[in-house]
Amino acid sequence: MNYHSVFLVAGVAAIAGTLIALRRAHIRAEYSVSWLAVGVLMSGLALFPKLIERLSNGLGMQPQSSLMVVGGVLISILVFEISRVVSQLRDENVLLAQRVAILEYRIQQRARDE
Amino acid sequence: MQPEAMQSKVMVIVPAWNEEGAIGGVVRSVKDVLPEAPVLVIDDYSDDATVQIAAAAGAQVLRLPVHLGLGGCVQTGYKFAFEQGFEYVIRVDGDGQHEAADIPKILETLISTRAEVVIGSRFLESAGSHTSFTRSVGIVFFRVLLKLILGRTIYDPTSGFVGVNRRALQVFSRSFPLSYPEIEVLVVLQRRRFRFEEVSCRMHPRRSGRSSITLVKSFRYMLHVMLGVFVNVLKFDGKPLNPEGDR
Questions:
Q1: Strand locations in B21-136, DSSP E?
Q2: Residues of A with CB below 8 A from B178's CB?
Q3: pLDDT tens digit sequence for B34-65
Q4: What letter would DSSP give residue A93?
Q5: Residue B33: helix, strand or coil by DSSP?
Q6: What's the domain range around A109?
Q7: How many structural domains is chain A composed of?
Q8: What is the pTM of this model?
Q9: Pair B198, B124: CB distance under 8 Å
Q10: Measured between CB atoms, which of A93, A94, A105 is closest to B62?
């Protein structure tokens, strides 16, 4: 199996896996876009080898190395995006937990007063 | 002891996580000193009897539905006190290390100096400082780091024995460092042109349980705090924020 085939399989798997997860509501649409973009990009690079050649020439690397670089950059972008979303969720979770605690205390206090 | 009218403007908050051995004594000692001031224990989802013991000792207990960590826990108390309209809040740790008899000193300094934050310091006059070697090294390190950033020496930058007035309360109820708040807060204060003072306070060894600080955790703590301080310095573009957060 050459590297084009590996990229094609990985790209199609990313697209198919994302669509299945979307259909089963395991992933929300707004968070699926980056995975679909990765799948399309990987498939495109595999189906149009000239793109890889141009990229390799531009980077001054062997095609295999340039594909590794592309893969690494894509994974880094995805991980960063996940970190951003997790941080946002953590902040929202703290806010909600604090609000729940304060409201629960007030409800109990009112029940005691009545 | 403070006059009753003043005490009604003060709330004492006690963040606590699995402090069943010490929390009762902490609440009672605070109530002995400020009998008219409400004591609010914020339970950070303990799995022991902290809630029941604190309530039995006469505290109001606000229980978090999940474990948030120290910063989130303290901020809950600040939010509640701000919404309830309190003028001053004194934070006392739930492990019994802080001497409740020193609360009036912090309160009086808050009122007389009009500083937004007053820190109870165990090193200002070496008044009964009980701390581990690892922590001492960290304190010295952050003392030097903060001197470079703030331009003044903070003798006990990791102290959790802190009094704040309503202006600081307003800011902290909206924005407060979540993980290791004490040191980062000082940089936030500087950025908002808040004034802070230190007063000498006694500190005791923790009354029960074990400190969660290990060597590995100390190292992680230092890295986290340095990153937090660095991020806050990065946010500072030379134009200080006013207390409401606007320029």
A1: 39-43, 60-63, 88-91, 117-121
A2: 94
A3: 999 999 999 999 999 999 999 999 999 999 99
A4: H
A5: helix
A6: 3-113
A7: 1
A8: 0.83
A9: yes
A10: A105
